[in-house]
Inverse folding.
């Protein structure tokens, strides 16, 4: 009897675990199938066409791709130095008494849903951008900044964790040669934790590019490519969030599915690079 | 009071009524400790775990300052100056008093850059001079033969014993006056240990050495003076052969004969 | 200036800059938190919990519909997601170990944990909403469950792995079958850790908006029928906040506040469980 239960338990567990793999494969397949109509209609030009006009049944993804790339790039430019600064502060400067509370609050802030960041951006940050740059305040720049603030806690926490993997004894050896804190950070900690730090940046990049709610509030969903960052724009997730529930034709839907597939492939690639190239999984304990 | 032998030579360091309290601790870890350290000699610090020997060692280069809240009292004189003052230039102090750790601590860079690290920190940029001094340090640390062909290779490719000698090379490259060894062979095999011990004895000609060890044979083999510490106090400091053959304190004798510890 | 003096000055500058960036970063985050608390507390009242949504201009609008909808969506997602995740995690830690299959599942789950959630919404739209012809609570729950699954799976895997193998061996030595060893020894040993994983997984999906936009959609009134479109705090928050009506915006802040407190509480609880376990 025990034998049978044992087998059932083991196989049920295995079945579900494999189910997770199949689920991911299914997601890709379904998105691909639903993209077919758009892929057949536009082919490769879907990626290079700048016109997104549902009423004309013309769908080009370039403005959304451009928006995703530029807003994420802006967010990274702003967040990376801040995150490094916060991480250095937390791992090397802060007194033990503030290290823990500040560290924990940063981790907790990483858990706040992105929709809250978006809402804050809309009500409190958009007016500031409007006052400084004119226009309506809803823009690529606003999206980039809000996005950077949203990924900052995650990035800072992971960067700090990576820096903290440097053995104390290694740091002490550099101090023992007369190194300053900055010497130790730049010559020992950063080279030692390089892979982890870069990995966490790329992981944050992967998250930022798929982030929807933090930017949907403040980007405007305007399918136009503009070099002027203070103009409204769109990104792949913003387009999806705004238009999916309203699409009214097969081709329109299919184009949105193709955008989803594109986003998934991009994110999957970026996250895989971070995970496999830089952050080899370490099992805790052992 | 501790029994302290007269140090015939000059003193490299003088510890006077030294107390050390870790952050958050109620009691000092080291209590009213007075102890001379002879110049151009090897002084070994022995004693059971928790006796304060490593804590004392890490006070000589103010390593405890890396962690806030630790407190020093009393004096440690180095070149007739108390190094425990709040205005003490720690960067300069640490270039004059070097340290070797329990485990090899090769930095994540090439062998050459490891040894050049301290020199570069001091602003030495001249390539030939750097090369000369790195080579000299590696030779003095008896690792030149093994390292010369792969100076540009990652230092982590060396074996444990080689890495520890590399760390010694790195420390002596900046020509310190005192070298602190914190159980330098605890992570090494017997052959590498013998190599390091030989090297330590050799180095005595140029620097004053303090070595913390949990291995009494090691203290007996390498040191000129041995200090026995117990519960944060110095029990006895004497010439090594006397400490191990005719200790003056009962506690020392009990420890040496293995009655506790 | 000597080289060492230069180093000391550079060090000071960098330390000031780092501290400054910490102050800036934390300042922004405090700003967001204070905005959340001030607007949220200001908008809180009993009517919020008692009344359903109302047309703009009507002062009696509440969030009851969204609160109950949210609860249903997350509960059903957890009802399926938690046991499935734990079971799959059990396979990885206890059966799959370091096999290629187990490692692949770990890798893919790790990636899925960071994958864009809106894409999951699109997927569920395709497999549930489109065939059934309507948005529904079920569709929303399924989307949340898919997002929750890898999180629970990976934490379970890690937490079970922490249970010392001597404990398992001791139980096997007494002749216990594997499933009993797992349920009676391994699960018990990893209870706190697995619970933490569950809390964090629930907290994570509770804050999801994007995958609900076109699955459970929204409803301005109370609906407990999972086969119909259903309100959630997050989507309500989005709709109300982007509306031009001040009373709706106010309700949006109340929803944001309630949701954040809920999520923060789950996160803090999760940490406490882990701390308590480590303290032992």
């Amino acid at each position: 009897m025990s034998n049978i239960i044992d087998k059932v338990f083991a196989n049920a567990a295995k079945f579900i675990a494999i189910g997770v793999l199949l689920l991911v494969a299914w997601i890709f397949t379904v998105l691909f199938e639903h993209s077919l109509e758009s892929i057949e209609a536009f082919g490769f030009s879907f990626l290079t066409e700048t016109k997104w006009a549902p009423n004309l049944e013309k769908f080009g993804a370039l403005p959304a791709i451009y928006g995703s790339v530029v807003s994420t790039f802006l967010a990274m430019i702003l967040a990376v130095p801040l995150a490094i600064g916060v991480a250095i502060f937390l791992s090397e400067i802060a007194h033990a008494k503030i290290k823990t509370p500040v560290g924990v609050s940063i981790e907790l802030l990483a858990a706040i849903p992105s929709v809250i960041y978006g809402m804050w951006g809309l009500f409190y940050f958009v007016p500031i951008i409007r006052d400084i740059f004119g226009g309506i305040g809803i823009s690529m720049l606003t999206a980039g900044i809000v996005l950077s603030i949203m990924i900052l806690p995650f990035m800072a926490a992971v960067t700090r964790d990576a820096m903290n993997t440097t053995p104390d004894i290694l740091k002490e050896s550099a101090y023992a040669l007369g190194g300053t804190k900055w010497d130790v950070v730049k010559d020992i900690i950063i080279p030692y934790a390089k892979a982890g730090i870069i990995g966490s940046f790329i992981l944050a990049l992967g998250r930022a590019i798929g982030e929807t709610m933090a930017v949907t509030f403040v980007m405007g969903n305007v399918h136009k490519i503009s070099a002027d960052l203070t103009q409204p724009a769109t990104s792949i997730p913003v387009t999806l969030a705004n238009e999916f529930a309203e699409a009214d034709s097969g081709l329109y839907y299919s184009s949105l599915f193709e955008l989803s597939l594109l986003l998934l492939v991009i994110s999957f690639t970026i996250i895989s690079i971070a995970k496999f190239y830089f952050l080899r999984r370490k099992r805790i304990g052992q | 009071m501790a029994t302290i032998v007269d140090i015939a030579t000059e003193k490299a360091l003088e510890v006077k009524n030294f107390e050390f309290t870790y952050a958050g601790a109620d009691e000092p870890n080291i209590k009213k400790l007075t102890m001379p350290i002879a110049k151009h000699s090897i002084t070994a610090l022995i004693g059971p775990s928790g006796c304060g020997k490593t804590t004392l060692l890490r006070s000589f280069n103010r390593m405890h300052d890396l962690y806030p809240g630790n407190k020093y009292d009393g004096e440690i004189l180095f070149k007739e100056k108390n190094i425990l003052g709040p205005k003490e230039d720690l960067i300069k102090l640490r270039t004059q008093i070097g340290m070797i750790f329990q485990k090899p601590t090769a930095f994540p860079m090439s062998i050459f850059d490891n040894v050049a690290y301290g020199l570069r920190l001091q602003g030495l940029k001249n390539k030939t001079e750097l090369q000369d001094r790195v080579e000299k340090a590696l030779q003095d640390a008896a690792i030149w033969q093994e390292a010369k062909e792969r100076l540009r290779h990652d230092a982590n490719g060396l074996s444990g014993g080689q890495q520890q000698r590399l760390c010694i090379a790195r420390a002596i490259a900046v020509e310190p006056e005192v070298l602190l060894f914190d159980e330098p062979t605890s992570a090494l095999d017997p052959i590498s240990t013998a190599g390091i011990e030989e090297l330590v004895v050799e180095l005595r000609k140029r620097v004053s050495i303090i070595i913390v060890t949990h291995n009494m044979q090691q203290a007996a083999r390498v040191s000129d003076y041995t200090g026995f510490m117990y519960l944060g106090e110095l029990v006895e400091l004497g010439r090594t052969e006397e400490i191990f053959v005719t200790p003056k304190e009962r506690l020392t004798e009990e420890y040496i004969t293995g009655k506790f510890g | 200036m000597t080289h060492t003096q230069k180093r000391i000055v550079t060090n000071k500058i960098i330390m000031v800059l780092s501290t400054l960036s910490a102050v800036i970063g934390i300042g922004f985050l405090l700003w967001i938190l204070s905005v959340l608390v001030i607007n949220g507390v200001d908008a809180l009242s009993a009517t919020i919990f008692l009344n359903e949504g109302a047309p703009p201009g009507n002062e009696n609008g509440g969030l009851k519909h969204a609160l109950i909808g949210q609860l249903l969506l997350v509960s059903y997602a957890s009802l399926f997601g938690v046991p499935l995740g734990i079971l799959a995690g059990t396979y990885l830690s206890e059966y799959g170990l370091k096999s290629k299959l187990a490692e692949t599942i770990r890798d893919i789950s790790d990636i899925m944990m960071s994958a864009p959630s809106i894409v999951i919404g699109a997927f569920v739209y395709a497999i549930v909403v489109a065939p059934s012809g309507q948005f529904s609570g079920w569709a929303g729950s399924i989307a949340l469950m898919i997002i929750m699954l890898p999180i629970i799976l990976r934490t379970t895997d890690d937490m079970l792995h922490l249970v010392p193998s001597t404990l398992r061996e001791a139980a096997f030595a007494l002749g216990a079958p594997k499933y009993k060893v797992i349920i009676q020894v391994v699960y018990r040993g990893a209870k706190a850790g697995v619970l933490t994983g569950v809390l964090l997984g629930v907290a994570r999906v509770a804050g999801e908006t994007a995958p609900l936009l076109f699955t459970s959609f929204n409803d301005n009134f109370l609906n407990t029928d999972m086969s119909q479109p259903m309100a959630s705090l997050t989507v309500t928050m989005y709709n109300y906040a982007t509306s031009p009506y001040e009373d709706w915006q106010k309700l949006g802040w109340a929803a944001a506040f309630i949701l954040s407190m809920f999520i923060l509480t789950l996160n803090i609880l999760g940490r406490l469980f882990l701390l308590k376990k480590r303290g032992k």
